Amino acid sequence: NGYIVHILTNKNDAEKYLGKPVYIHLLADELIGEDLESVLGEVELAIAMSSNEDLNLGVGRILRSRGVPIVLAIVSSSEAEKKAENDGMIPINVARKIFEELIRILKLRFTKIVLLESPVAVLSLHVTSDSRLLGKTIKEIESEYGVGVTIIRGGSTITDPEQEIQQGDMFIAVGIIDKLRELLVQ
Q1: Average pLDDT, 10 consecutive residues per value, the chain (186 residues)
Q2: Single pTM value for the model
Q3: pLDDT given at position 39
Q4: What's the CATH number of domain 6-99, 2.30.40.10, 3.30.300.20, 3.90.1150.10, 3.40.50.720?
Q5: 108-185: what fold?
């Protein structure tokens, strides 16, 4: 596939990589041994993916400080996600990914209407694969129900009226509470 793969692992796990087309490097006391240090200049992408998020963050910080341009760090908490971002890494929050996948598979509906000041309210819901909102544009919903709509998708805020609503979106609408309830039940 054109990639040269280097595995940084501990002595116990190294055996499972024997016979595979990878270079195996063992964790040293200071995390990265001399054998890996000597090839770091060639590394374009590193993935810190042990089950120990502190180790991932520590190794990731070292790799970034040694000039590795892209470091993905597997984390399981929002706090670690922020630390990784602050240290120049790209975090992958497995807890969040598992939760999103469960929502998708189980078609869980998380819906909340909060009254701001009568009769104005905010509706937030997670769009599932069986939602009747799928495929409709923000403009269509705003026009039909007289509400303001924002979509949160992958951490980005979307307000473009021509954007279609997709599975996995967090749908947020502000408007008259009766119209928001109507939007939910139809």
Answers
A1: 77 84 78 78 87 91 91 93 96 86 69 89 89 93 96 92 93 95 82
A2: 0.58
A3: 82
A4: 3.40.50.720
A5: Alpha-Beta Plaits (3.30.70)
Q: How far apart are CA 107 and CA 126, in angstroms?
A: 9
* Domain edges within the chain: 6-99, 108-185
With vertex at residue 112, the alpha carbon angle to CA 117 and CA 180, rounded to the nearest 5 degrees, is 60
- At 109 the pLDDT is 65
